[in-house]
Amino acid sequence: LTILGLESSCDDTAAAVVRQPEGARPEILSSVVFGQTELHSAFGGVVPEIAARAHAEKLDICVRDALADSGLALKDMDAVAVTAGPGLIGGVMSGVMCAKGIAAATGLPLVGVNHLAGHALTPRLTDGTAYPYLMLLVSGGHCQYLLVRGPEDFTRLGGTIDDAPGEAFDKTARLLGLPQPGGPAVQAEAESGDPERFRFPRPLLDRPDCNLSFSGLKTALMRMRDQIAAEKGGLTRQDRADLCAGFQAAVVDTLAEKTRRAIRLYLEEQPARPTVAVAGGVAANTAIRTALEIVCAEAGAAFTAPPLRLCTDNAAMIAYAGLERFKSGARDELDLTARPRWPLDQSSPALIGSGR
Ligand code: ATP
Ligand code: FE
C-alpha cells in the first residue's frame, strides 16, 4: 500500500508518501515539512489566522514536492490521508479541503486521521513496535499516558490536568526572552545551567496515579525571575541558564516518576514485559529521553523513541496512521469534517482522571 499524507493542524505544513509492501516494514518514501516559525516569531506564539493562510498557500506545493521526492505520481497512491483534527481549525480545514480536492479529482479513497494517533503510532512506523504498548505522548498541546492496542484503540491511563509540557517549555522561553519554539531554546540554555540552584515544584507526586500538572512551573518561574530582577536589576546569562536547568529538571523528574506509575498501571491491564514508547515534540528533549530510558531499564521495560524529526509535526506519521486505518477497512467520504477537538480515547469507557 502507498499512501499520501497531509498535515496542517498547527504551524507546520507537511506532506509525505509512506509505502508498506505486503508483509514488509513501512518505508517513508518522502517527507516534506514547511515550518512557519518565522511567520509567527514577532507575535510570541502561533497566530491561527496567519497559520491557516500559510497552510492554504503551501499545501499544494508540499504535495507536489512530496510526490516528486518519492518518484511517484498521484495515480500510484492507494489513498490520501489527512489530519482531520485536533488542532487550529483554520489549518485543519485547509488540509481537509486539499485532501478532498485530491480525492474528488482522482477518485482516491480519503482517510481522516487524528493528529494524536499520528504521533502515537510513530513508533510502529520507525521501529515496528508491536501492539500493545505504553505510549507517553508529550507535545505542544498534549500530555498523556496511553495503552495502545490498535490503530483506533487507545486507553488513557492518565495525563496532565492543566498545561502540556511543550506549552510549559514555550512559556518558560517567553518569560526569559528566549526564541520560540521554546523547547529547543530552553534545552540549550539548560545545558550550561545548574539544576540545583533553583528548586521548582514537582506537582502531584504525592498522588498514586499518573496524572501530571505543569501550570505551577510557570508561576514559580515568574516568582524566581522577578526576585532576581528585584535584587540585581536584571538576569545574567548564568541566571537564565540556571532557571532553565531548574525548570527542565522538574519536568524530567515529574515525567520519570509518573512513567514508573504508568508502567505499574499498564501491567495491571497487560501483564507482559511492556514496551514504553514516547512521541510528540517534547520527546525530542534529550534529558527527558535519557531519564525515561533509565526508568524503563529499572522497570524491565523496553524503551523506544522516534528520531527527532519524526517527534515533531510531520506528514509521514499521518500517512502511516492513515495506512493502518485504511488497512483495517476505514474510509471517509467527502463529507469528512475538520474537528478542533478530538480526544483519542473518546469511545473508551476507561477514562481515568481529567484534563488533556
Ligand atoms: P499537538 O501535537 O499536541 O497538537 P503540536 O503539534 O504543536 O501540539 P509538536 O509539534 O508535537 O506539538 O511539538 C511542539 C512542541 O515541542 C513545542 O511546544 C516545542 O517547544 C516542544 N519541543 C520541541 N523540541 C523540544 C525539546 N528539545 N525539548 C522540549 N520541548 C521541545
Ligand atoms: Fe503535534
Task: Summarize the structure in words.
The chain is 45% helix and 18% strand. Helix 4 crosses helix 11, helix 6 crosses helix 8 and helix 7 runs antiparallel to helix 8. It is built from eleven helices and ten strands. The chain has a five-stranded mixed β-sheet, sandwiched between helices. Strands 8-7-6-9-10 form a five-stranded mixed β-sheet, with helices on both faces. It is globular and about 65 Å long. It is an alpha/beta fold and 356 residues long. The site of adenosine-5'-triphosphate (ATP) has 23 residues, from helix 4, helix 5 and helix 6. Keywords: Acyltransferase, Cytoplasm, Iron, Kinase, Metal-binding, Transferase, tRNA processing.
**Ligand identities:** adenosine-5'-triphosphate, fe (iii) ion
- Residue fraction in strands: 15-25%
Q: How is the biggest beta sheet arranged?
A: 5 strands, mixed
Indicate the low-confidence ranges by residue numbers: 347-356
Mean pLDDT: 93
What is the global morphology? globular
Order of helices and strands: EEEHHEHEHEEEHHHHEHEHH
Question: What is the strand arrangement across the widest sheet?
Answer: 3-2-1-4-5
Helix content: 40-55%
User: What's the total helix number?
Assistant: 11
The number of E-state strands comes to 10
Structural class: alpha/beta
Task: Report the span from N to C terminus.
Answer: 33 Å
Using only C-alpha atoms, the radius of gyration works out to 20 Å
Please write out the topology:
Blueprint: E1 2-7, E2 12-19, E3 27-35, H1 37-40, H2 48-70, E4 79-85, H3 89-106, E5 110-114, H4 115-127, E6 133-138, E7 143-150, E8 153-159, H5 165-175, H6 182-190, H7 215-232, H8 237-269, E9 275-279, H9 286-299, E10 302-304, H10 308-311, H11 316-327
